[in-house]
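Input record (one chain):
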Amino acid sequence: MDNVTLIRIIAGGLAVSVFLLPLYILPTILAWKKQHRIQILLLNLLLGWTVLGWVGALVWALADAQANPDQLGVGKFCPKCGNPSPGMARFCSTCAQPLTAAN
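The corresponding structure, as predicted from the sequence alone:
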């Protein structure tokens, strides 16, 4: 195997990992904060290799409704502004108010 062939193999591998992998998991990325994100992830991983499975996951991800903060894990609500913050947050992501364990 000469150097040109080796460079072409490496470039092809990089092209697949940089461009095609994000395209393959695009439905999962779009569904990350949706109600049925786990189901869309499984559909994308198990049937995404078929064109029909990938298109189905993409359509489902685009049509699905946003999830409530309670569905995304244990979230905290700020006592000052009332906006939700992630469960492990120590400060409100909107107004920087310190969050206590009771929130």
